Amino acid sequence: MKLDEQTFSSHKTAMLTLKEVTKVFKNRARTTVALHRVTFTVAPGRIVALVGESGSGKTTLARIVTGIEKPTEGSVTLGEWQVDRLRSSQLRVYRRYVQMVFQDPFSSLNPHNTVLQTIVRPLMNHLHLNVKQARLQALEIMNTVRLTPTDQFAHKKPHQLSGGQRQRLVIARAIAPNPELIVADEPVSMLDVSIRADILELIDQLRKRTGMSVLYITHDLYSARAMADEVVVLYKGHVVERGNIEEVISHAQHPYTQLLLQAIPNPWKKRQPTAHRVDGSESAPHFAEIPAKDEITLYGRLHAGDKGCPFAARCELVSGECLQAKPSLKGTEVHQVSCWNRQV
Amino acid sequence: MLEVKDLWVKYRSQHGRSVSAVRGVNFSIPDGTFMGLVGESGCGKSTLGFAIARLLNSQQLEISGSVLLNGEDLIKMSSRELRKLRWDKIAIVLQGGMNAFNPVLKIKQQFTDVMKAHGQGRAEDRDQRIAELLRHVQLDPALLEAYPHELSGGMKQRVAIALSLVLNPELVILDEPTTALDVIVQKAIVEMLQELQRHMKFSVLFISHDLGLVLEAAERVMVMYAGKIVEEEPVEVLLEGAKHPYTEALLSCYGDPQAKELRFKGIPGSPPDLSKPLQGCSFVPRCSKAMSACRELEPQRLELERGAVACHLYTKMQGGIGK
């Protein structure tokens, strides 16, 4: 199972493949389907955006990809790693190849450790460098993520850094063991807009330079378009639309993807309300009209017995079929949608 | 009508380095105006909102200037006078406000507490009023009997907004009311808020870091940077072209996600340290249009035909520098 260290680190070839991944959480009161037969791949060097709202299952998916959680059904592989079957001793090795960047740079760093210590640790733990080598390497990584001048930053602690600098440090720590894949869970949503572009650009540069792939988890289609190559739209644990990002955004088919796109604040559009409604008419959608009770449906759990389309309760296009059976993903290689009423 | 005149807020720290979070702010909100206030973290926008509502602990800070609500100065008021005025004339909704409900009280009780404290009528009238408010925020009046934990985040924030309107205030301050919510819920709440404001004609101070959202929601917008209002204008004027280089830079961070070409930019550098004295314009280090005058002289608020701006590019145009 263990891969050849040398080839693994020099050029990256590992493909992340999720096949029919289902995750069910059970407790005495209820059974919750967090993910329902999710299938997609992240090719080496690609950035795939996973887009959805709270409760859509995106974080559960991240936990499965990083091996924190095991899927109930289906398989997850990264290169030769069978992620869903790893034992805890293997997990420790696996984590060298998959690293995470979290949303909150204020709580994901150890406040006691300096910048240098934070980056040195994964280098020693995962790459087994000695202290001297690790320090040299860490300084180089600081240059890469532009925590410069390095001598000024090396001995600072997290509280002495700004939000953007902290997130750079989190990224530095993640790329230190030279991973195959980075799972970035809302890496910019807590930062000011003025520094978001910078951080996204950094992630983009890093993948070009190192050939790593990125699973970019976000609720923001705008930033997804700025960085990702492909997008997977998740609703209540179901992939409702998927494909090339430009294609999906310019020809969004699923009513949910369209709703997400229209919800992005867009002051320029206000004066010329041409946003196509879900039914295809010209008027702008009235979000205020969505009855608030639908928020319960939105956040409510999906039960094991539910057989219809997960979006049926909120959908304007709903028809008999939608309540009877789940639609499946259909379409072309670059764009697929899961809807009874819409096709690519 | 709310008028803020030369408002300063200085946080005192133990190490003797005080931080001026609000530095000489002047503006007014005419009755029935939906005013937006936008700025990056640490620019002092929340402090300004809190200062207006007098929610700051005066032992830890110095506050000077005046906040006039219909001619009465809130800064000079005693806490007794303030207590009468809150909810009744001025109400506030906070970002985490949806989590600040008393967890052991039903939604109904949260409302009646406020109404009783302000001597509001008979029990039946109260119930009717609460049910009406819940309908206004598009919630089922049956939720009166629910406990806060039974509601979703978006529903709780709707209740918080309804609660702020319970005594028909003249001014509602909303500090990042939708930041913790999903985009679709955010959109729904902002549209609802606009409708309520048009219908009930209160004025709004909507504070957010999200310029795109503020531009969509508000009629007028104020842009704050390093404790000062650097630009204030009706939204449509700003959309035609920002005047202050900071506003311009901030605007370029947003764009139409479905536009053919995506422009996605940031602003290099970071805001100044407000614990240190500043010379000249606070935006100089990040400004692409800085001139020598900007480093020496702090630009003053300059009233324009339909707004105001504090930037030397405009004082110069008007022959203002050196006068």
TrEMBL record, chain A:
One of its GO terms (molecular function) is ATP binding. CDD domains: ABC_NikE_OppD_transporters (cd03257). It comes from the Bacteria. Transmembrane segments: none annotated. Pfam families: ABC_tran, oligo_HPY. Residues 16-261 form the ABC transporter domain. Keywords: ATP-binding, Nucleotide-binding, Transport. One of its GO terms (biological process) is transmembrane transport. NCBIfam families: oligo_HPY (TIGR01727). Belongs to the ABC transporter superfamily. This is ABC transporter domain-containing protein. The lineage of its organism: Bacteria, Bacillati, Bacillota, Bacilli, Bacillales.
Automatic annotation (TrEMBL), chain B:
It comes from Sulfoacidibacillus thermotolerans (Acidibacillus sulfuroxidans). One of its GO terms (molecular function) is ATP hydrolysis activity. PROSITE patterns: ABC_TRANSPORTER_1 (PS00211), ABC_TRANSPORTER_2 (PS50893). It comes from the Bacteria. This is ABC transporter domain-containing protein. It holds the Pfam family ABC_tran. NCBIfam families: oligo_HPY (TIGR01727). One of its GO terms (biological process) is peptide transport. Belongs to the ABC transporter superfamily. InterPro entries: AAA+_ATPase, ABC_transporter-like_ATP-bd, ABC_transporter-like_CS, Oligopep_ABC_C, P-loop_NTPase. SUPFAM superfamilies: P-loop containing nucleoside triphosphate hydrolases. Residues 2-251 form the ABC transporter domain. PANTHER family: MALTOSE ABC TRANSPORTER, ATP-BINDING PROTEIN, OLIGOPEPTIDE/DIPEPTIDE ABC TRANSPORTER, ATPASE SUBUNIT. Keywords: ATP-binding, Nucleotide-binding, Transport. CDD domains: ABC_NikE_OppD_transporters (cd03257).
